[in-house]
Amino acid sequence: MNEQPALKVMVVDDHPMWRDAVARDLAEAGFEVVATAGDGLQAVRRAQAAAPDVLVLDLNLPGLPGVQVCKQLVGARPALRVLVLSASGEHADVLEAVKSGATGYLLKSASTQELLDAVRRTAAGDAVFTPGLAGLVLGEYRRLATEPAPATPDEPGAPQLTDRETEVLRLVAKGLSYKQIAERLVISHRTVQNHVQNTLGKLQLHNRVELVRYAIERGLDEV
């Protein structure tokens, strides 16, 4: 029986004791900790070399802020998943992190088990947030949807989505996780991921933030 390869994780935090503790917890849970870093510039260099599946990232970093680290790395490698682990629950920090490409946002008050679960779900493509923050982010998506969109993927000649892709997109816009979508549609988690990736490619979008904005602009979350 083939075993799944361990998820590769990198931990970025400027506090050595906290960084080491998180890395140790992840390693003991079976993750492969491929790198750690204590400042923003170091984080960018090491992440580019180590190619982690998930980056566990603090926002308050010397050298280069966490949101810039996230923006640079996700811009260069869109498949990278970023889970922000921060002491700040300020709404502005949460929204800035999501706009920079973070997949999830967890407060440092979370338990070890919550962190481990969040890393696994982030790797699977779910948007993971400390309770209370998910509604904030969805509200921001709705606000963004009232602004003009930079892309016009539904111009004549643009690729058309299949009925199933549209169905998945509608559920993403409603804030459902990939796991919840899979259960709702009675399909596998991987099939949901494939539909999302195909939709991103067809619409020439880059991440879940842009995808939800696209869906809300077209009223798919209200259907």
From TrEMBL:
<dbReference type="InterPro" id="IPR058245">
    <property type="entry name" value="NreC/VraR/RcsB-like_REC"/>
</dbReference>
<dbReference type="InterPro" id="IPR039420">
    <property type="entry name" value="WalR-like"/>
</dbReference>
<keyword id="KW-0597">Phosphoprotein</keyword>
<feature type="modified residue" description="4-aspartylphosphate">
    <location>
        <position position="58"/>
    </location>
</feature>
<feature type="domain" description="Response regulatory">
    <location>
        <begin position="8"/>
        <end position="123"/>
    </location>
</feature>
<protein>
    <submittedName>
        <fullName>Response regulator transcription factor</fullName>
    </submittedName>
</protein>
<dbReference type="InterPro" id="IPR011006">
    <property type="entry name" value="CheY-like_superfamily"/>
</dbReference>
<keyword id="KW-0238">DNA-binding</keyword>
<dbReference type="GO" id="GO:0006355">
    <property type="term" value="P:regulation of DNA-templated transcription"/>
</dbReference>
<dbReference type="InterPro" id="IPR000792">
    <property type="entry name" value="Tscrpt_reg_LuxR_C"/>
</dbReference>
<dbReference type="InterPro" id="IPR016032">
    <property type="entry name" value="Sig_transdc_resp-reg_C-effctor"/>
</dbReference>
<dbReference type="GO" id="GO:0000160">
    <property type="term" value="P:phosphorelay signal transduction system"/>
</dbReference>
<dbReference type="GO" id="GO:0003677">
    <property type="term" value="F:DNA binding"/>
</dbReference>
<dbReference type="Pfam" id="PF00072">
    <property type="entry name" value="Response_reg"/>
</dbReference>
<dbReference type="InterPro" id="IPR001789">
    <property type="entry name" value="Sig_transdc_resp-reg_receiver"/>
</dbReference>
<feature type="domain" description="HTH luxR-type">
    <location>
        <begin position="154"/>
        <end position="219"/>
    </location>
</feature>
<dbReference type="Pfam" id="PF00196">
    <property type="entry name" value="GerE"/>
</dbReference>
